[in-house]
């Protein structure tokens, strides 16, 4: 296309590619890019350079560009385990981090997190082998034979639980006997003795389980 100007003609020829820090307009011309934090408001002409505008609040542009709209800032959703670590600016996106009880499943270039998941809870019959962190999920493993876990936290030797529950029920039953049936002094002595027996038995079985008990009688005396 040409336009007569006096006796000369100005030719505007679309180009195949632009130089670095230039962008190609819709009509195929090359214009200077806008800097970070800005986008194109009006393309350049033969008489003026590119007109740029600042990014609006809630948007950003982190690179030289020939775009007409800024990028929307990322939202850190607390309902999905994220919180704002660094606020969005005209030149940088929001940086999100992880709330307690969650781990990151998608990382960003700015050392932030874009996707989080709740820490897994170990099922009954399992224990926590490795607690969850902000970068990894909980690792569970099954209890060994002879051990059990009600809450999915720790495995306990099965016989300890059975005997302790039996002693507790026995102690509660005896301690609820009315004082009219037993001399008051004997009543309190009996309750204290049962409580002491429960504690000593628990210490004995726990140390036996870990093979660290050297003298059980010394512990219970």
From TrEMBL:
Pfam families: TNFR_c6. Disulfide bonds join 31-44, 34-52, 55-70. It comes from the Eukaryota. SUPFAM superfamilies: TNF receptor-like (SSF57586). The chain crosses the membrane at residues 157-179, 185-205. GO terms for cellular component: external side of plasma membrane. The keyword Membrane applies. Keywords: Disulfide bond, Membrane, Transmembrane, Transmembrane helix. TNFR-Cys repeats lie at residues 17-52, 54-96. The keyword Transmembrane applies. GO terms for biological process: defense response to Gram-negative bacterium; defense response to Gram-positive bacterium; negative regulation of alpha-beta T cell proliferation; positive regulation of cytokine production involved in immune response; positive regulation of T cell migration. Residues 17-52, 54-96 form the TNFR-Cys domain. PANTHER family: TUMOR NECROSIS FACTOR RECEPTOR SUPERFAMILY MEMBER 14. This is TNFR-Cys domain-containing protein.
